[in-house]
Each structure stands twice: as structure tokens, then as C-alpha cells.
Design goal:
The complex is a heterodimer of chains A (278) and B (259). With 278 residues, chain A is mainly alpha-helical. Chain A has one domain (59-277). Helices cover 86% and strands 0% of the residues of chain A. In chain A, helix 4 runs parallel beside helix 7 and helix 7 packs across helix 9 (213-239). With 259 residues, chain B is α/β, with parallel strands linked by helices. In chain B, strands 6-7-8-3-9-10 form a six-stranded mixed sheet, sandwiched between helices. In chain B, strands 2-1-4-5 form a four-stranded antiparallel sheet, sandwiched between helices. In chain B, a hairpin with a 2-residue loop joins strand 1 (19-30) and strand 2 (33-44). In chain B, helix 4 crosses helix 5 (131-144). The longest helix of chain B has 18 residues, at 190-207. Classes of the chains: A mainly alpha (278), B alpha/beta (259). At the A-B interface, helix 6 of A face helix 3 and helix 4 of B.
Chain lengths: 278, 259
């Protein structure tokens, strides 16, 4: 009886294996590594969500990451956003003046900054600063067997290292975006004020008239996705870095390039969704 | 063939002692490279087993299979009565708490102080522990490796030998039943290497642990091992006491003793 059962089980296994082989034949062999990587990424993200809601929570490590990703990026994001605000308003002004529409400048700047410039600048700066940092840190931990050491002492490194970083990036990047939008508009006002003597009240009345609730929600929502993408890509590249110091460089580089690419893809998709609701 | 290899394994300790690690016929390949090719051995309670072999013979891969860091392609791994290959993550973590794994380069967390390194596994596995209890455990572990004064130092401020000792203290703090040492004396000067060898023996006597010591260092094998198992090209060549192994005629093994 037992033998019969064993025989049935193995024949089922063989049939499943044959079916899998047949299914694989539909995909050319050169694409197999691509799909295997996709499956690995999907499992990684699934593992993130599984660990995210399962206690115990690594609150201290999460707050530490929020400080590193958020607070330590404030200066860089602030300066970049302020410069972008000045440059954008000064470059747009001559064209608007030519059409006699310079009073539209605050509206023009606010739409550009809130809808696109602010989230994009923040995400791209964070991609360079945060993603490279996370990937380099995790990959060097992998190379020096520190992650293995955590694994064998049952300390759940995925929860401690990965969940905290992805969550912190997902939360902090929208906050940094709001900060960047504010500074960008402020610097734009200063730039306009020097040339046109516009009052603060008038400038910001025009700013808020031009943007809708959907613009603000859309901007913050896509920043959440930007943050998640930056955190997830950086952690994935770092956590699965290959051995050796070359692996550290490759992980950091791969994290920046992939997350920047993803940011533009997400921006494009977000635009379609927001336009649908507009 | 496998049976013959098993027959060569002559445990020094009494046969009535309980086997706490049983590895049977494991195979492991990385792509085309065959690393382990049918390795079988056992470890008894309170015994120090030295796995001796040249670099690249699969020694580290072998002990990584014991803690589920790597999984063999074939064969079975039984540790403390558990089949490692069939454990779910929770059960695997519970088993890992009973095994102290010492990495070749110590693998200290370089962003943490020595104290934080030692507290890290405790805080995550025994969340109810008070600060006072944590302090006591850290002090005890550091005292057992003779480095009480390094508590507030960063790993980068420690010498190679000190890092090895702190690595051992970090595993001892969880009071494991089995210690695994991956090349404990590699990269150390002969004096420090001797101190580490003595520490491995001390740990066995004080904490009543069994251990598997991976090494290519003959003096380490002689000092720390109750039984030696020689590995070459992913296969067990010989097993026995140091004296038995040292009389071998096998060319790959003889080179160790002639050197």
C-alpha cells in the first residue's frame, strides 16, 4: 500500500515536472535569467510585506533609518530644490513676458513644482544619496558575512536590515518631497520678488489657485512609490550582492541606475492614473 | 564506498555517547563545481571534531550546511535531533540558537561597539531581558574570552586575535550546545593562534560544548581536536585521532604533516 502511494506521488511529480518543462519551452532560453530575477524580486517584495506586519517590530532601527534617510538628506534636498525653483522661474519668465503673461508665473511654477519637479528632484537626489548608501552598506555586510552572522544567531536580519530601510524610505521621501516643494516655491517667490516686486500674499494666492487637491495627493502618492522603489531596489541589490569587493561597487551602482530608471517609469504611470482622475 | 569511508571514522569518545550531529552522504555543487561529494560524519556530545583540509575542499560549505546557510543538493543533515533540511524558518531559528557559528573573519557588526555586538542576539531573541541582565551576560561572555576592557571599543579598534575572541564571546552569550569554528587561527601570528586554540579547549571544558573546528592548521588540529576528519576534493579521506591520522600514507594528507 505504502509502495503504491509512493509510486503515485512520484508519477504526479513527474507529470508536474513535464508540464513545467513544456511551459518553459514557450519562453526563449535567453530570457530565463530575466524571469528568474523577476521571480526573485517578487519573492523579496512579498517577504517584505510578510515581515512588515508580523511583530516584533524593529522600532529603534526604523527610527534610526528615518533619521539617516530623512534628516540627513534635508540640507542636500533643500539646496537643490531652492536652486531648481530659482532656475525654473528665471528661465520661464522671458517666455511669459513675451506673451504678456508674466502674472501667470506663480501658477506656472506651482504646477510644475508640485506636479513634477518637486517629487522628481527629491527622488533622483535620494536615488543617488540614499540608494547607493543602503546598497553599499548592505553589500559590504553581505561580503564580510555580517548578514550570515545575524542569520545564524536567529536575529532575523531581513526584518532588522531590510524592512526598516524600505519602510523608512517609503515614509521619508514623501516628507522630503513636501519640504522640497515648499523650498522650491519659496525660492521662486524670492526670485520673482527681486525682479517684479510681487507680494508674498499675491504670489502664494496665485500658487494655491493653480493647484488642486488632486495635484497635492498625486504628488505625495507618487513620492510614496518613488520611496518604496528606491528602498526596495537598494535593499535588493545590497542584500543579494555577490561576494567580493567588486560586488559592493556593482550593488551601489546597480541600485542607483535601476532606481533612477524606475522613478521615471513610475512617474509616467502616475501621470496616466492622475490624468484619468482629473 | 561511502560505507568504507564511514568505517574509517573511529570516534575517540565512548560509543554510548549521544550523536548530536549526523551528516549522511551530502553532495553540494555550485554550477559545474562539485564541492562536496558524498560526505558523511557524526559528532558526539562533548566532542571536538576537527575537519582538516586544504583551502577549497568544501570545509566551510560543510558547516554552513549544518546551520541552514547553505542546503546540500542531496543527503541528510541531522543536528540535535532535527532534520535541518526540513525545518520551517521558526524551527530553524530555534535550532540555530543552540549552535554558535564563528566565522573566519569574525563577522563582527562594524557599525556597533563590542557591547552592542554581544547584546544584539540577546536583545532580539530574549526581548524580556532587562538592561541589568544584558550587562551581566555581556560581562560574563567578555570575561570568558579575557577581553572585559574592550566593551566600548569599535571592531575597527581591535586586533585580529581580539576580533576572533569577541566573535567567540558573541556566540557563547547564547549558551550554545555546539560550537562551529571556521578557520579560527587563519591570519593570526603563531602566539595569538596558540591562544585561540587554548581558548577553544577552554570553551569546551567550561561550557561543555561539542565543536566542529574547520582548519588547515596542523597545530590547531592537534590542540583542539579529539578526533580529526580529513577532507580532500569534497570527500572524506581519513578519520581518527591525531596520532592515527599523522601516520597516514595518503599523499594529500601526508603533505600536512611533512610540512
Amino acid at each position: 500500500m505504502e509502495k503504491e502511494l509512493t509510486g503515485t506521488t512520484s508519477s504526479i511529480r513527474n507529470t508536474i515536472r513535464q508540464q513545467e518543462e513544456e511551459e518553459r519551452l514557450w519562453i526563449p532560453e535567453r530570457f530565463h535569467p530575466f524571469f528568474e530575477t523577476m521571480a526573485k524580486i517578487a519573492r523579496f517584495i512579498g517577504r517584505f510585506f510578510k515581515n512588515l506586519f508580523n511583530p516584533p517590530f524593529e522600532t529603534t532601527a526604523f527610527l534610526d533609518q528615518c533619521y539617516k534617510i530623512g534628516y540627513q538628506s534635508l540640507l542636500l534636498i533643500g539646496i537643490t530644490a531652492a536652486i531648481a525653483g530659482v532656475v525654473f522661474s528665471q528661465q520661464s519668465r522671458p517666455s511669459l513676458v513675451a506673451f504678456g503673461a508674466q502674472s501667470w508665473l506663480p501658477s506656472f511654477v506651482s504646477i510644475a513644482v508640485v506636479r513634477s519637479l518637486g517629487p522628481l528632484i527629491t527622488a533622483l537626489i535620494c536615488s543617488g544619496k540614499v540608494a547607493s548608501n543602503i546598497a553599499a552598506e548592505l553589500s559590504s555586510m553581505r561580503v564580510t558575512e555580517q548578514i550570515d552572522a545575524m542569520e545564524v544567531s536567529a536575529t532575523k536580519p531581513f526584518k532588522y536590515l531590510i524592512v526598516t530601510r524600505i519602510l523608512a524610505a517609503t515614509i521619508m521621501i514623501p516628507i522630503l518631497t513636501i519640504f522640497a516643494d515648499t523650498l522650491s516655491l519659496m525660492s521662486s517667490f524670492l526670485s520673482v520678488n527681486i525682479l517684479d516686486q510681487t507680494s508674498f500674499n499675491l504670489f502664494f494666492t496665485k500658487v494655491f489657485e493653480a493647484i488642486s487637491f488632486l495635484d497635492i495627493i498625486g504628488s505625495i502618492s507618487k513620492s510614496v512609490f518613488f520611496g518604496f522603489a528606491i528602498g526596495a531596489v537598494a535593499c535588493y541589490k545590497g542584500y543579494y550582492a555577490s561576494k567580493g569587493t567588486v560586488g559592493v561597487g556593482k550593488a551601489a551602482n546597480g541600485a542607483v541606475v535601476t532606481s533612477m530608471f524606475l522613478i521615471f517609469i513610475i512617474d509616467l504611470l502616475a501621470l496616466q492614473v492622475i490624468t484619468f482622475f482629473r | 564506498m561511502e560505507d568504507q569511508l564511514e568505517m574509517k571514522s573511529k570516534p575517540l569518545t565512548s560509543t554510548t555517547q549521544k550523536e548530536i550531529v549526523t551528516v549522511q552522504n551530502i553532495y553540494k555543487s555550485f554550477g559545474e563545481k562539485k564541492v562536496l561529494q558524498g560526505v558523511s560524519f557524526h559528532l558526539k556530545k562533548g566532542e571536538n571534531l576537527v575537519v582538516l583540509g586544504k583551502s577549497g575542499t568544501g570545509k566551510s560549505v560543510l558547516i554552513k550546511c549544518l546551520v541552514g546557510l547553505l542546503y546540500p543538493d542531496r543527503g541528510s543533515v541531522n543536528v540535535l535531533g532535527e532534520n535541518v533540511l526540513e525545518l520551517d524558518p521558526v524551527a530553524l531559528d530555534a535550532l540555530r540558537l543552540k549552535i554558535g557559528f564563528n566565522f573566519q573573519n569574525s563577522a563582527l557588526y562594524d557599525s556597533m561597539t563590542v557591547r552592542e555586538n554581544l547584546e544584539f542576539p540577546l536583545k532580539r531573541n530574549f526581548r524580556e531581558m532587562t538592561e541589568k541582565e544584558l550587562d551581566k551576560a555581556v560581562d560574563e561572555a567578555l570575561e570568558s574570552v579575557g577581553l572585559s576592557h574592550t566593551k566600548d571599543l569599535m571592531p575597527s579598534e581591535l586586533s585580529g586575535g581580539m576580533r576572533k575572541r569577541i566573535g567567540i564571546a558573541r556566540t557563547l552569550i547564547l549558551k550554545p550546545e555546539i560550537m562551529l569554528y571556521d578557520e579560527p587561527t587563519s591570519g593570526l601570528d603563531p602566539v595569538t593562534a596558540k591562544e585561540i586554540n587554548e581558548l577553544i579547549v577552554e570553551v569546551k571544558e567550561k561550557y561543555h560544548t561539542a565543536a566542529i573546528v574547520i582548519t588547515h592548521d596542523i597545530s590547531c588540529a592537534r590542540t583542539t581536536g579529539d578526533r580529526i576528519m580529513a577532507l580532500a576534493e569534497g570527500k572524506v579521506l581519513e578519520a581518527g585521532t591525531f596520532e592515527e591520522i599523522s601516520k597516514t600514507d595518503h599523499p594529500a594528507l601526508k603533505a600536512f604533516f611533512d610540512y
